[in-house]
Amino acid sequence: MEIFEVSKLFPTEERYSLTSQIRRCSRSVVTSIAEAYRKRRYEPYFVSKVSDADMENSETQVWLDFALACGYMVQDMRQHLDAKSREVGKLLHHMIAYPEKYIASQVKKTD
Questions:
Q1: CA torsion angle for 106, 91, 52, 61 (degrees, to 10)?
Q2: Tell me: the pLDDT tens digits for 69-110?
């Protein structure tokens, strides 16, 4: 949501490029995690969707770099958002490396 708020300050000529792209990929991080959670019974699918979230998180960082380079945000805000993005990345990497800690246990059959 912070990225959404910051992107409101971007120039209107960036509406269909930088603004829409940074909003799309930052939101996609969350939606991919939601999809992974709903499919957490299936480890390969879970890992795939978390990997997608990690990819979108990385793309968000690139768009933030562009926003800084274009002068649409100040360095302090970029550093703040970068720190949050890196923390999200660490959590996603943990989920990818140790999916068994996050996936739902299989339903046990009773005799």
A1: 170
A2: 999 999 999 999 999 999 999 999 999 999 999 987 654 445
In the structure encoding, which two tokens stand for residue 56, read together? 């979108």
The domain total for the chain is: 1
**Per-residue b or e along 52-79, where b marks 16 or more CB atoms closer than 10 Å to that residue's CB:** bbbebbebbbebbeebbeeebbeeebbe
The Cα angle at residue 25 between residues 24 and 27, in degrees rounded to 5? 70
Q: Which domain range does residue 51 map to?
A: 2-98
* Cα 27 versus chain centre, distance: 7
- Determine, yes or no, domain membership for 111: no
Asked if residue 24 belongs to a domain, the reply is yes
